[in-house]
Design a protein that fits this description.
Jelly Rolls; 25% helix; 5-stranded antiparallel β-sheet; alpha+beta; elongated
């Protein structure tokens, strides 16, 4: 096996890793922001906010919702919350949700298109409960991207050097 055949694919993988880590997300998720104005919408409190920070829009098809209760299971009954969608500062969709405290996450469908801000709010926030959101699905939503640590790059370069050394020794024999 030639050095080009061995190292070439690894260099392509390293370039792809670098490009993926440098990619900027268009959407951003904020956890428990207070007293903010985003995309023309002023709000006092939300548990989770998904917003388009570059002036574009996205679709929200569905999301997993979970009501966290710091007081332990069975402290209260069901909890209500609301999810609101905005486009250019105008409310274009809302949905009331009912969740049991500390029950498994529930997938809710929204099917909202061309929006730039979504507010997820728990019905009760002063008592420490909050509406947790995960696995948001829709066109234009970028999930949080992990950025490799410098040690990951060092490990990659060390592995490439090791493969190159092995290939060189084989070629010399």
């Amino acid at each position: 096996m030639s050095l080009k055949k061995t190292v070439g694919p690894l260099l392509l993988a390293a370039a792809a890793l670098g490009a993926a880590s440098a990619a900027q997300a268009d959407t951003e998720v904020l956890i428990r922001p207070f007293n903010m104005t985003l995309n023309g919408v002023e709000f006092y409190r939300a548990d989770t906010v998904l917003w388009e920070k570059d002036g574009g829009s996205f679709n929200l098809d569905s999301a997993l919702l979970f009501e966290h209760n710091p007081w332990g299971p069975g402290a209260w009954g069901d909890e209500w919350g609301s999810v609101e969608a905005y486009r250019h500062g105008q409310l274009v969709g809302s949905k009331d949700v009912t969740l049991q405290f500390d029950a498994p996450p529930t997938r809710y469908s929204f099917n909202w298109t061309d929006i730039d801000l979504v507010l997820f709010r728990s019905g009760a926030s002063s008592d420490g409960t909050f509406l947790a959101v995960s696995d948001m699905v829709g066109a234009g939503i970028t999930q949080a991207q992990t950025v490799p640590e410098p040690s990951s790059y060092a490990l990659l370069l060390g592995g490439l050097g090791l493969i190159g050394g092995v290939a060189r020794r084989r070629r010399q024999r």
